[in-house]
Amino acid sequence: MEILDGKTTSGEILDNLKVEISSLLEQGHRIPRLDIIIIGHDYASEKYVSMKEKKGADLGIKIVVHRFEDNIEDGEIKQLIGKLNQDSLVDGIMVQLPLPKTNKTFNTKDILEVIDISKDVDGLTYSSLGSVWIEREGIGPATPTGIIKLLDEYDIDLTGKNAVVVGRSKIVGLPLAGMLSRRDATVTMAHSKSENLQEICKSADILAIGIGKPKYINRDYIKKDAVVIDIGINRDYEGNLVGDVDFDDVKDICAYITPVPGGVGPMTIASLFFNLIRVYKRNVKKY
Ligand code: NDP
Of 25, 63, 137, 173, which is least packed with CB atoms within 10 Å of its CB? Predict the structure, then answer.
């Protein structure tokens, strides 16, 4: 069994981006810019945003954070996004999710839909989500983008392979299925209503699980020599970080596996900046 090492691979991607950004700046191009909108004070969201600020600064990217209290109206957020859409100095716009659950309900879909597709570095507008099913190079959400980059890094051939994606959320399973299909895998999407999940998973050459259930997938779900992508990030009873796959139970059966931590997680943040620099390069040509 070989580990798909997301920590090392993401480090290499970030190092390459840093070199690329500094060379673009030396050529006289402006600083790439990502605008992040955060609403409320959710601890995990604050942490993710500060991680992006730190990493962005290290890469030479300008990160502008727009903070709102959770009593803000949807209209004000949409108005800001509208302004950022028009600003030629802004390359990427993202709204930190999930939006807070308060007395008022935010309409996440309507808010995200205001983001211009050319600045949708998080790949969550319906147009971006559709694009990854239609174009091989569509810009999609960071987690599935990172998974594809990791598979590429290890030269894992997807053509004609049976790929099973368990979980169909908009940030993970749905776009990942599209990306695998565009790379000529034969894709099955499974979810909480799927019957015979074990049998479906056992048919997979590539098995990707993102369901949020600690160590749910054991060896009974794994085909011999499968590639196992564990997307889950959970805490077990002792508070340790674990995936959706029981790593120790499956490690002798599969050919490749992503560890948790150190697999898909670090690829996610690297892919956000990778997406940003893709749109930035389009923008500097445009203006
Ligand atoms: P969601 O809750 O949005 O979606 C979970 C999906 O799993 C749903 O499609 C659900 O089916 C399906 N599901 C739930 N239980 C089962 C089951 N027993 N059998 C089959 N399918 C099931 O979660 P997310 O997609 O946001 O996150 C999933 C996991 O991935 C979490 O652990 C999260 O922490 C992790 N994650 C990791 C990231 C990373 O960077 N590594 C990034 C984002 C998420 P249905 O649609 O029928 O309800």
Answer: 137
Yes or no: say if 197 and 190 are a contact pair by the CB < 8 Å rule. yes
Ligand 1 pocket test: pick from 52, 172, 188, 218 the residue with the most ligand atoms within 8 Å of its Cβ: 172
Count of beta carbons in the 10 Å neighbourhood of residue 255: 14
Residue 229, ligand 1, Cβ within 6 A = no
Mean per-residue pLDDT, 86-115: 95
| Catalytic site includes residue 281 | no
Q: Are residues 99 and 148 in the same domain?
A: no
Query: What is the distance in A from the centroid of ligand 1 to the CA of 157?
Result: 25
- 0.85 exceeded by pTM: yes
Strand 241-242 to strand 234-235: parallel, antiparallel, or no bridges (unpaired)?
antiparallel
Strand pairing partners for 166?
Answer: 190, 209
Token pair of 212, please? 């949020």
- CATH code of residue 71: 3.40.50.10860
CA dihedral 217, 218, 220, 221 (to 10 degrees): 30
For residue 93, being part of any structural domain is answered with yes
79/178 same-domain check: no
Domain ranges, residue 97? 28-119
Contacts of 130 (CB under 8 A, 6+ apart): none
Mutate to test the pocket of ligand 1, among 122, 169, 188, 269 (most ligand atoms within 8 A of CB): 169
Tell me whether the omega of the peptide bond preceding residue 98 falls within 30 degrees of 0, making it cis.
yes
At 286 the pLDDT is 60
Q: Does ligand 1 lie within 6 Å of residue 210's CB atom?
A: yes
Kindly indicate the confidence band of residue 102, based on its pLDDT and cuts at 50, 70 and 90: confident
Map residue 3 onto helix, strand or coil. strand
